[in-house]
Amino acid sequence: MNIAILGFGTVGTGVYKIIEKAKRQTQNLHVKHILIRKNKKPDLPEMTDDIDEILNDKDLDVVVEVLGGIEPAHQYILAALKHKKHVITANKAVIARYMDEFTKIAADNGVKFYFESSVGGGIPWIQGLERALRVDDVNKIQGIFNGTSNFILDQMKKTGKSFNDVLLQAQQLGYAEADPSADIDGLDVANKLCISVDIAYDIFVKPTDELPIFGIRNITGDDIAYFNQKGLTVKLMGKSHQRGNEFDYVVEPTLYHGDTLEANTTDNYNLISLHGETIGNLKFMGQGAGQLPTANAVIQDILDIFQHKEHLKREFMSNLKYRSDLTRSNYIVRSEIDCSKMFAKFDPCVRGDYLVIHQIPIGEMHRLMRQVLKQDGTAFMASLPDRKGGAAQ
Amino acid sequence: MNIAILGFGTVGTGVYKIIEKAKRQTQNLHVKHILIRKNKKPDLPEMTDDIDEILNDKDLDVVVEVLGGIEPAHQYILAALKHKKHVITANKAVIARYMDEFTKIAADNGVKFYFESSVGGGIPWIQGLERALRVDDVNKIQGIFNGTSNFILDQMKKTGKSFNDVLLQAQQLGYAEADPSADIDGLDVANKLCISVDIAYDIFVKPTDELPIFGIRNITGDDIAYFNQKGLTVKLMGKSHQRGNEFDYVVEPTLYHGDTLEANTTDNYNLISLHGETIGNLKFMGQGAGQLPTANAVIQDILDIFQHKEHLKREFMSNLKYRSDLTRSNYIVRSEIDCSKMFAKFDPCVRGDYLVIHQIPIGEMHRLMRQVLKQDGTAFMASLPDRKGGAAQ
Question: Given B25, B137, B308, which is nearest A134 (Cβ)?
Fold first, then answer.
């Protein structure tokens, strides 16, 4: 099977490395083209800076898009699908935004559009979710979807250092980018959550204003110390619930008791869970990023195409409706302003420097918190475990 | 697709229930026969006590064997395969013993022999392991494979009760059988570990004398309290390592630090892990037993057959050799006899009522422990974490 890799950064190089090793079932895979940047000197005979040379190759079967970013990735994916090439991408930003378009164009052209590596890196999450859906409705998803933010929170807990010190360390280690906002403000989690929701409920949602997002930029060493003292560990989570014909989804810091798998998912690992009617709770832990785990997931998609293992069909015809107040939760808030009046309806209780708010709808909480942030840009919040074992059910 | 269910106990009933619900992709499945015990009164029109009526049905596609036990399950599976019916079984004891025979007869007759539900219940472990093997050599497997023993150890830790009190409670709740030996002596784990090893290394191993097995029958409330005080949690594990052309496998109580996923796998959950070259660590947690999770895994196998999703081929042609001293580990031993001389080569150190033994080959440890048990039938041992994070690598 002939493959073109668009982009030869970390993941692209990883895909090439694994295929070159030609172990087990990968010996029939052949990297025929590698798209590099315009005017960059080619190091390998497969390299070209001409996308049309790739698209017009009649013997090419699969295009692996690992450029990252929205454009030209979006245009290249569309063009490849229209040239009847299967497309595999690790690019969660472009999938989250254009999943419906890619799905339709792929179906129209009789080719596959697969993206296992885009959520959870090497974790077979998309595969696991799709399999669960063959038998069950999935009514809950929750995940530590972002390794960088998990590394930061874990290091803060282990070392007692400040957010900024640990962020700097993560940047020096290459775990965080120079502009870390996608990781720490929850946008990367939002993309991965939307992709998961798209599949779980067969609807198309984008990480727009409708999705409540609160990141970890404002967390302090004192916050971590206080949570620790209460036996709680904070994780940046993407979560979604489905009941009847309604669903919600949210990205927010979430506190877990010390004896949960979430609290003990350390370093830059990911942990993603689903709950289905007959399967119950199912959790997958693994390397959510990194060259070889992510490349491994790309190769798995290639092998699925090669072995004719079709993924779940998406039609986005579900009549599920988003409802921002579907789920209620308890929250803890830290702010320099007195916001007990603002949360008066939800039994606000002062706990040291914090305010605990009870059984507030998730959407309402995020709306009110945006008002708090306007007056106090340093404010922080996290959802609290309902009972033993985790966040709101 | 026409299905026969052999045995209508917990799992058989679950398979029937899920198919009757006819959700999503299961609507094409049809239970045509249910084999019940001789002379038992049939409650449903599908029921029969005549295995030949089932085997000779030309329109039957799949036989689901959920009788349990070795015979007649073994003969029925062989007969079904020879009648060119696909066979799916949840029966780990019969698979662990006859995997090679079933694999060969299925291939000879051009039908499938699948067994996802036999290891890890609802956890897609076989599927996950087979996928990992498409790209990687898997060089480590470790799992909490048995929910009953995990429930017992977890309850002992949570309540401080004795082994016997918790075992009785588990029996009353229906989590443990009247004769609990398969669960507490490690035989169930041994079956599941052997099945995993068969697939991981493409060799056929049986849970014979070669496999070192040590169960939890001798653990006391004082042991649990002592481990607790050291920040350690004990789990009954099945483990296997592969290096070069050699492998080992072992079933034994294993101590984990409190901040590992293993230590925090509570109740009757299972947690099964693999390590592969490019994928790194991958862990799956879920319901390792129970009617609907196990039945769900049976249905997944049926759907794989229906959707022509072929599982990994097994040929058992690997030249991997078992070596009992491949891996060394530290152990803690409790015995009423003084056994420091016996372990003199491995730097034995007294720690209260316990002896800590250093860097002893796993096989040697189990051999010596069998000698200890001859003099002190109450002796207990567990392997210790090598460094932070778990048992011997």
Answer: B25
Nearest to A131 among B124, B281, B283 (CB): B124
**Is pLDDT above 80 for A23?**
no
Chain B interface includes A315 (CB < 8 A): no
Task: Please give the C-alpha separations between residue A302 and each of A26, A61, A87, A296, A358, in angstroms, as whole numbers.
Answer: 9, 10, 9, 10, 48
**CATH code for position A86:** 3.40.50.720
* Residue A388, φ and ψ in degrees, nearest 5: -65, 135
Same domain, A137 and A80: no
Are both B181 and B136 inside the same structural domain? yes
CATH number of B272's domain = 3.30.360.10
Prior bond of B72 cis (ω within 30°) = yes
Residues of B designated as active site: 192
A195 and A79: one domain? no
Residue A391 lies in a domain: no
d(CA B32, CA A291): 49
Q: pLDDT, tens digit, for every residue of B224-266?
A: 999 999 999 999 999 999 999 999 999 999 999 999 999 999 9
Q: Do residues B228 and B382 lie in contact, with contact meaning Cβ atoms separated by under 8 Å?
A: no
**CA torsion angle for B322, B325, B327, B331 (degrees, to 10)?**
130
Nearest residue on chain A to B29, alpha-carbon basis: A135
Provide the ipTM: 0.95
| Residue B268 scores a pLDDT above 50 | yes
pLDDT tens for each residue of B284-336: 999 998 999 999 999 999 999 999 999 999 999 898 999 999 999 999 999 99
| Average pLDDT of chain A to the nearest whole number | 94
A359 CB-near residues (< 8 Å, 6+ apart) = A328, A329, A330, A346, A347
Residue B264 within any structural domain of the chain: yes
Interface of B with A in 122-161 (CB under 8 A): 122-124, 127-128, 131, 133-137
Q: What residues of chain A, 222 to 281, have a C-beta less than 8 Å from chain B?
A: 258-261, 263-266, 269, 276-281
pLDDT at B390: 43
Question: Which among B26, B128, B278 has CB closest to A292?
Answer: B278
pLDDT of B156-212, one tens digit each?
999 999 999 999 999 998 888 889 999 999 999 999 999 999 999 999 998 876 899
CB within 8 Å: B131 and A300: yes
